[in-house]
Amino acid sequence: MAKVIFTAWKDQSQLLDVRSEFYPSASYEGPDLRSHACATVEAWKLRGNVPHHVEATALLTDAILHDDAQHNSIFSIRATYSAAFCRFVTGLVDSKVQGPRKTMFQRAVDLGLPASFVELRHEATHREPPSLVVLRKASQRSLEWLWDNYWAGIEELGDVPMIERNDTASIRSTLGDILRKFSTGSEQSQKKRKRDEDDELATQLISRCAASDEGLKLLPAVLLEESVLIDSERQLGESLNKAFKHWDPVLLKVTESSSFFFTHFAEELVNRLAFDPAIESPQNAYAEALYSWLNHISTSSIWGIYRPFFPRSYVLSVCEQCSSHWTQALSKELEKKGKATKATPITSGNSFKSKRTSSKSSMPVEANITSKLSGHGWEPLQKWDSRPFGISSIN
């Protein structure tokens, strides 16, 4: 007997129309129809059976359209982004309830969802709403994920041209071929590559990743699978300084083209370190190498400019969820680095305070500031009125 599937749309062409409104082509020059698409999905919800991916796309898009500081308060904008993002993540992770008991992080990895989304959802749910910068980037990444994992897979009808889909196997194969091409050869040729061909290697990787949104997410995994970052024959305790020196220039160039690579790279490293029970042993050389790479990119000065893109909260959460010798060591290093960073402004603040203990040294500065402000229409208040708002004076 044929299986009957009920949908909120009359036929698939309606779904494709909504998709083109949410994700217009690069050549489209007509009016912005995203609000119409959101209204259509809202009408579909009254009929029921709307897939979570469709609803989440509408919620995230509506949050983006709500992002207008001239008509909405910053608080309401952050709240709208947070609500849409939390519903998107929770609806995906909670839908996968079959099988063995798993943490939300493990379920996210199973679904191919960036695990940092789970940490951001936790922050938005149980703490203060994240900043607008973080929420905007997360919403954009979420819409890209929804395109790759739902909308791009919808079959076209009639004479509508087929949408080019991301072929994961093809991307992995191409990236692997590029890495093998530049990684094989004699030691002399390797030294020559470091002198002359770093830019060419990075350019080819960037070009392949730019051709598909999936490429940037797959590159960290391919780098590890091809054993270019970690020698498959590496022994426990062996230094990775040579590998750092060898690959930092290339990885930095890729990160320069897209800072999100740094986030994907850190996530891939910690996921392999935490979620693979086969490498939990303190004597496992591969786990030690993963730990060393994470410690390197999170503390080395050469990666300092991209440190804001390091998913520190997520890494710490994973280390707490999946405790092992190496995750505990990594957590301690990150906590130590965090305390050292927080201690720096305190020291400088004390120094600043000591310099201002002398009224003679502070007076010229204050007078100079007052003079500059007066030139722009600002003047010091001679008498402060401490009455609460709404209380008028009675003469």
UniProtKB/TrEMBL annotation:
Residues 337-365 are annotated as: Disordered. GO terms for molecular function: endonuclease activity. This is Cell morphogenesis protein Las1. One of its GO terms (biological process) is maturation of 5.8S rRNA. One of its GO terms (cellular component) is Las1 complex. InterPro entries: Las1.
